[in-house]
Each structure stands twice: as structure tokens, then as C-alpha cells.
Amino acid sequence: MYTPNLYKNENQEEIRAFLKENSFGILINQTNGKLCATHIPIELEINADGKEILQGHISKLNPQAEGFAANDAVLAVFTGPHSYISSSWYDHENVPTWNYIAVHIYGRIKIVDYETSLEQLKKLVDKYEVNSENPVKVEDLSAKTMREARGIFGFEIEIEEIQATKKLSQNRDDHNYKNIISELEKTEDPQSIAVAKEMSKCRK
């Protein structure tokens, strides 16, 4: 991912928090000479050795999985809030741009056994059911329903490199920076307002 130095985020705690909050990612690999991508939840976890990894699962019917054995190199892409930035918001002439937050993780993927896949599913469901009025638990599902779990491959990704971009108008002076935040807040667009919130955190 091309990231000018000004926009590089090397704060590991921030990156971890971002991955926890934006865990619906895109898994990309090469299968039979063709690039493949799947949109799935991919969770940052700690393995038995205390090392950070990514976990997830895909359908066994997904042809993307065919490429894992031949080439285990994968890219996981995670995106956060993003918004168009109009240059009419500056006190000088310039070009429009786009503000956004994104993380790319490069690593090596491996398929895990059924028992490990099941544990991953339990963690995933528990995470997203926590605020449900009647939370679903994998342990309570019938044998018939759980047969569907046989139709997935659970995987782990050994993290080799993390590239994180936080492009939030850091190149603007305080006057223009504050004006961008104000204009974003006026839009009533959830993405734009989320960008304004992130910008406010970066510069008081």
C-alpha cells in the first residue's frame, strides 16, 4: 500500500484497536494464476505461543481456498471511515482529496482442523451476540444446524507485515484543519462524521 510518511500509522495500539473495531475485511490471494478476494470477518487473536495472528473461515465451496496449498501468501485488507474532502473548504486554491483509514496485513495462511474451526466460530458468535436480547450460542445449536459447520475451512494467518495508513489532512494548518472538521460534521453523512471524529482525536 502506497503511504507517504506523513500518513503512516506506526502506533501498534491504535492499529490493534482499529482491527478490533473494523474486522470485516477482504482476504486476497492468488489461485490458479488469478487474483481472488472474499469479504469476511477476520479477527485479530493471540495464538497458543502468545503471537498475534488473524483468524477466520471461508466456505469449502469457495474456489479461493484451492490456492492456499500452492501459495500460502495472502493479503488481508481492512478499511475504516472515509470521506471526500472538498477543496472549497480551504482558504486557498487546491485540489479535492479523500480522507480515510486503512490497514493492510501480509502473511501466510494455513487451514486449521475442525475442532479449532469450531472454537473460532464460538468466539466470533460470542463477540457479535454480546448485545443481543436473546444471544445465540454455538453450543446450543442443534446437531442438524451444526452440520453446516462442516462446510467451512477455518484458517489462521501468520502476520509478516502490517501497513497502516491514516490520511486525515495532516498536511493542513490548524485553521484549515478545523474548517474541514466543521464541514464534515455539517454533511450528516455517517462516514464523514466518523472521519471528523477521528480528525478531532488527532489534533486538539
UniProtKB/TrEMBL annotation:
Membrane-spanning segments: none
Coiled-coil parts of chain: none
UniProt xrefs under SUPFAM superfamilies: FMN-binding split barrel (SSF50475)
A Pfam family that the UniProt record links to this protein: FMN_bind_2
InterPro entries, alphabetized: Split_barrel_FMN-bd, TR_PAI2-type
Origin superkingdom: Bacteria
Gene3D superfamilies in UniProt: Electron Transport, Fmn-binding Protein, Chain A (2.30.110.10)
Name under which the protein is recorded: Negative transcriptional regulator, PaiB family
Organism of this sequence: Flavobacterium phragmitis
